[in-house]
């Protein structure tokens, strides 16, 4: 969904190169280099995992900026510690990275749409501020 938002903009081929859909843990490991130990210890929906996802995507794509997103959009899959609507975001940029967690309300599509909107807003802020976390 995030890649679709990027490529819906005319001229995006000038700055958007590629994306990775790594829905399974195996894909996160194989495509982005997320460590199996990270997934076992912290789970897919965690600060540690999105950190590794964003850093891995940036390295694999040889990009200046990368975003990793992992969450529980529902309707099932939530827990007491990670309820439905929990989404972790990892951002890798020149000179560093940062992570953020948000809890969104609504149905599956609403949670996903809010996650894309947040990622776009945060990434735009990072680019505007030269990579300084916002």
From TrEMBL:
Residues 1-124 form the CinA C-terminal domain. It comes from the Bacteria. SUPFAM superfamilies: CinA-like. Coiled coil: none annotated. This is Putative competence-damage inducible protein.
């Amino acid at each position: 969904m995030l890649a679709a938002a990027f490529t819906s903009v005319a001229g995006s081929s000038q700055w958007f190169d590629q994306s990775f859909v790594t829905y399974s843990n195996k894909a996160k490991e194989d495509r982005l280099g997320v460590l199996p130990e990270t997934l076992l210890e912290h789970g897919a929906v965690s600060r540690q995992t999105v950190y590794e996802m964003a850093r891995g995507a940036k390295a694999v794509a040889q990009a200046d900026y990368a975003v990793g997103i992992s969450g529980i959009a529902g309707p099932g899959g939530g827990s007491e510690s990670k309820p439905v609507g929990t989404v972790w975001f990892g951002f890798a940029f020149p000179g560093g990275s940062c992570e953020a967690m948000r809890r969104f309300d609504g149905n599956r599509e609403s949670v996903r749409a809010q996650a894309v909107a947040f990622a776009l807003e945060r990434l735009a802020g990072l680019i505007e501020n030269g990579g300084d976390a916002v």
